Amino acid sequence: MSSRYRKPFRYPDGFADVLRDFTREVLREQPRSIPDYGAAYFENLLRQGAESQMMEMDGGAVPTRMSPEELQEFLSSIFIEADQDNSGTLSYKEFKEVIETSQLNFSKQEIRKMLMEADENEDGYIDYNEFLPIGVDIVQAIFARREAEAAQKSNEAAAQEAARAALIHGMPKEQYKQSLLSYFRVHDTDKSGYLSRKEFKECMKNADLGLTRQEINALMSEIDVDGDGNISIDEFDGIFFEMLVEIISAATIEEQRNSDELTMYLLEIFRGADLEGQGLLHKQDVVDLLRRGDFGLTKIQVLSVLAEAVMDEHGFIQYESLAPAAANMIKSLWEQNMDLERAAKAEQIYEESSEDFLFGRPKDEVVGDIVAVFQGYDADGNGHLDPSEFRKCLNETQILGRPLDPKEVQSIMVGIDENEDGRIDYEEFISFMLEIMEYYYREQRMAEM
After folding, report:
1. Do 128 and 88 touch, CB atoms closer than 8 A?
2. What pLDDT digit, counting tens, does each position of 374-396 carry?
C-alpha cells in the first residue's frame, strides 16, 4: 500500500537497461543460483567500469580515430587472439565478446550494427577475415556518426521511443508477433516447441513479414539457446521478441533515405537485372528484387508498391517510370511505422478482428461471393481463368462493399501466380485475394476513423 508520506525514490539513469541486460544473461546462462550469479555479474560490471575509467585517466584507451590500415590491423589482431583453434572463424558468442571488449567503447546499438553485417556460415560461425573490410568501414562510419550526431542525442532517443511504440513493418506489435509465432509453429514439424538455430534462421528468412538480412543477423546474434542448442517458442514469445522490436525500431530510424537516393538505388537494381537493356522487367522479377532488396517490406506491402506500375498484358513492367513512384511509396511506408496515431488505429482494428469474420461480414459469406464471381467467368468450368478474364472478374468483385479501384486490381494482378499455361487457379486465388484484401480493408478502415 502506497503512502503519501513515503519519501519519493528515483531510479538511476540507465537502470532499466542494466536490468534488461541482466535478465537476458540469466535467460542465456540458466544459472543454478541466481543470487550468486547476480553477485558475480554485477561485480564484473563494476570492475569493467573501473578499468575503463582508469584507462581514460591513464590515456591507455585505443584512440577513437585510426587510419583504415591501422583499424584493419587492430581488428585482425583481436579476432586472431580470440581464435583459439586458429580456424579463421568465431562463434556468434565469441565474435560478440571480441567486439564488446575491444576497447573501442561501442554502445549496444553500435555493437548490434556490427553484428548485423556478420553473416554466419552453415555451421553458425563467422569468417572474421571475410568480415574485416566491412568491419573497418562500419567502425569508421560509427566514429564519424558519433561526431556528427553528438548534438542530436535527445532527438534521436525520442524518435526511437516513438518507433518502439508504433508499427512493426506496418503491423501492430501483437499482430506481428502472432504472425511470426505462426511461422515458428509451421517450422516446428515435430511439435516439440523448439527449433534448432539453423531451423530458426530459416524460419525468419521464410517469414514473409519484411525482415531484412541485417535484422535477421542482429536477431541471431542476440537470441539465446538452451543447453541442447535449441530455441524455445516460449523464449521467443517473451524477451527475444522485445529484442526484435528494438532491432527493427533502430533500423527504421536509420533507413530514412530521401526519395531521390531511393529512386537511384531502385534504378540501379532494376537496371542490373535488365540484361538486355530493354527498360522492361517481368512482374515476378520486380517482386523478387523488391523482396530481396532489404527494404523491410512485407509481401503485401511490396504488391501495394507495385500498384504504381505500368504493366503490359504479358506481365512486363516499365521500371524507369516505376522507380520514382515506388521510392515515394516505400518512404511513405517507412514513415507509417513511426506514426503513433496510425499505430493506435491499427491496434484497434486488430483487436476488433475475428477469425469468423472478414471485412465486417461472415467469412463463409465473403468466400462464397468470391467463388460465385470467379465461377461466373469460368465458362468451361475447369477452375481456371486467363489473365484478361481474371481482370474482368476483379472489376466485378465488390468484396469490400464497393468496386475495387484500379491500383487495388493492379496489385492483385502483379501478385497472383499464373500456371505454366498462363492461367489462374481459383483455389490459389481465393487464399491470396483474402490476404491482400485484408490489407486494403485495414487501410480503408483507418482512413474512415
Report:
1. yes
2. 788 777 777 777 777 777 777 77
Q: DSSP code of 396?
A: H
Joined grid coordinates for residue 298:
512485407
To the nearest 5 percent, what fractions of the chain are helix, strand and coil?
A: 65, 5, 30
Cell of 214: 541485417
Higher pLDDT, 159 or 401: 401
CA distance 78 to 63: 15
From the list 168, 223, 215, the residue with the least C-alpha distance to 199 is 223
Q: Which pLDDT value is given to residue 190?
A: 86
What radius of gyration, in Å, describes the C-alpha atoms of the chain? 26
Q: Pick the closest to residue 134 from 110, 150, 151, 118 (CA basis).
A: 118
Share of the chain above pLDDT 90, in %: 0
Q: In the structure grid, which three cell numbers stand for residue 307, read together?
A: 500498384
Q: Are 291 and 326 in contact (CB under 8 A)?
A: no
Q: Which residues fall within 8 angstroms of residue 291, CB to CB, at 6 or more apart?
A: 208, 297, 299, 302
Long-range pairs, 231-237, Cβ under 8 A, ≥24: 231/194, 231/195, 231/196, 231/197, 231/200, 232/193, 232/194, 233/181, 233/184, 233/185, 233/188, 233/193, 233/194, 233/195, 234/193, 235/27, 236/180, 236/181, 236/184, 237/177, 237/181
Question: Tell me, what's the pLDDT at 436?
Answer: 81
Tell me the DSSP string of 372-387: HHHHHH-TT-SSEE-H
Residue pointed to by grid coordinates 586458429: 86
